[in-house]
Amino acid sequence: MPHTQLPRLGQGFYWQDIKEGQAFQTFRRTVTETDLINFISVTGMLEAIFIEAGHEGGAIHGRPVPAALTYAMIEGFILQTMIQGTGLAMLELTQKIHAPVMVGDTIWATVTVTGIRPTSRNGRAVVDSDIEVFNQRHERVMTYSARRLLAGR
Question: Among 8, 50, 141, 147, which is least packed by CB within 10 angstroms?
Answer without folding.
Answer: 8
